[in-house]
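Data availability (excerpt). The following record was deposited with the supplementary files.
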Amino acid sequence: MTLASAGSGVAPRRALPQLPVTVAAVFAMLLLTALFQLPDPMIRHDDYPALLADPSLFYSKTLTEGRWVNYLWHLRGFVTPAWLNFLAYQFLWAVYLGCLVHNAFGREAEIWQRVMVALIAGLGLPWVLISLWFNTLIPGLAIVALYAWLATRLSERACRWLMLVFVPVSLMAYTTYPFLILGLSLTRAGVARSARDLAGLLALFIASFALGMLAIYSLNYAVHGVFGVPMAEWRNPSPARDLASALENSKLAWQFLVSLAQKGAYNNTVLVLLQWGLLACAVWAVLRQDKWRAIYLLSGAVLGLALICLQVIRSGIDMPVRSGGFLWIFGAVFIGLFVLTLRDSGRPRLSRNLLFAVTAVHVIFGGLTYRVLTEWHRVSRAMAAELAEGQGPVYVTGTYLSLEAARKSDLQKDHSVAFRLHHLTGREIVMCESRPEDCAQLPEELRAGLQGRTGFEVRQIDGGSVLMLSPEALRQDKLEAARQLRQAD
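Predicted structure:
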């Protein structure tokens, strides 16, 4: 009796709230995957203005990309270290992913299964690549994360009407962020689905997207005197003016789709076949079990790809692979539903092993990609250490394209070298390759760059330093290579 009384007086242990646990676990795994990035994260050349809170260097993108929300972020007036910004970006991404899988699976999946699906969704190659612009994307991702959190608290009806606010604002941060918002409604569990409901949801989203475009056009007209978004030259625009040019640009749209399929699987033929083969099986399985649930997911993927391809056909621009990251959101949910189907059909071991394997591939390949991309920062720290002995401007001779680290880290412009070295040393960086007139006073021996070998060498001169690189490029400039490919076609 005493024992029973004592036992009955013990309060039951409260279970931890599932959403915070899911978000925390996803955040921890994202940081583990990006471990090599954490101390000194890789930064793209056009992400430095956001790091340095310099609006003047970003202002042109309000016209050519409509990124008005990001421009406001550049006006914040304070600077935080890159590592802290990277942590903030990954945390916001974890919030979105955690809320996505929390709503998509409800009580169908355990926490560890949700976390794995979130990692598959969040560690697709497009998302790894776009994360190198983390300084710029923080405000946009914060908007998306806020909407995702609200989606776990509000009814589906309320969330849909909030699209009229969140879709236009997120569009002014990054072009494909609105599809992350749409994905939250299309993947949500426990809602009634029908053709009429889907049509209404997509119509509301398209109206919200159009409202965002109108807002961007209006702001551009008010500030720049241009009602529209003229494409920047680096995108190699060739606007469609008739049926023939539209058909020609449709080849670019097809190239984007092929590139997305190949590069999305890290250009590994076996991985391409396994990844898209598994996705096809998952789609088929979900279609058989819950037709409308599959149709909702497919509609989001198709609508996103259709709008991107329409933009490519209309403007004739080069569309980077990172623009298709939203596909991994829908694909991951398909895979998650597939493994749950396997579990419920009496094959729990196969279900568990398949989910572990797919997640492991994304974590391993994502981690290796981050590791390779940090090579430039390792080399640039060595350069900065030698440059620390001098004062005055640093003249960089030769070409950055001669550096193996530039190839591995996929540096896109010589601005990457200039911004990085200035950030590390605080000195003016003069790239002689693009500013030869500012290097005319240097001796011929130094202007010629590093002869007969690769790597770098630092020479101290009166009033400055010379960073000598080889003049022999290991690869073409990315933008020039794209232009030549267009001409060849």
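Summary of structural features: The first helix runs from residue 2 to 8.
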